[in-house]
Amino acid sequence: MAVPDNQAQGDASLVYHLTYTDSEGRESLRVVTLRRIDATRDGLKLFCWCHAASANRQFKADRIREVFCVATGEVFDAPGNYFAEHPMLTAPRDPEAYALATCRHEVNLLTILAAADGEVHEDEQERILVHVYDRVPHLVLDEGKLRRRLSKVVPDVAAFEAAMWRMGRFRDGDSVALMRSMRKLIDADGHVAAAEIAFAEEINARLNLSASSAG
């Protein structure tokens, strides 16, 4: 699932210097290119390309002490407010792609779960659609476009393992919302399949184990 083009790594308007404090209280300067902002239960989370590490990194907005915008030269000492009003979060160029990028791992797992009994039913497709809407309530989405994009999601084993790794190890996504939607999806077609229940239990167990190990 592609990241929207307005979040390209080379977009100079999205390059920032972040004064950041990590979980152990150590402060550092990070030069990043902003790729996505998620509004999570724990606050805003920034997904960025870190220029020093040459890799993708996540940053919690409440740990950012100061933001310097390279493109404008402005300095912001209220990062939470700045990113809460950022156009990438409030008005992305391609809101449907942005929505799917925000919860791509959850969508992959829900799609695999829906197909666990051999067929993805219409009611199960609706539940996945509702999950996306629930995850990004601040976005105005074109339902037709979103449906067409969801219909093209065909996750494989690699996508499943990536979803489990990212959600379990890096808290990428909303596991609570995922579990809630999984329960509703299993009941969506009016038939509770043993394969779906077993698959949902596996996901739950692996995410709980990952969370315990990470803690």
From TrEMBL:
Residue ranges constituting the Co-chaperone DjlA N-terminal domain according to the UniProt record: 109-212
InterPro entries from the UniProt entry: DjlA_N, TerB-like
Protein name as it appears in the record: Co-chaperone DjlA N-terminal domain-containing protein
Native source organism of the sequence: Brevundimonas bullata
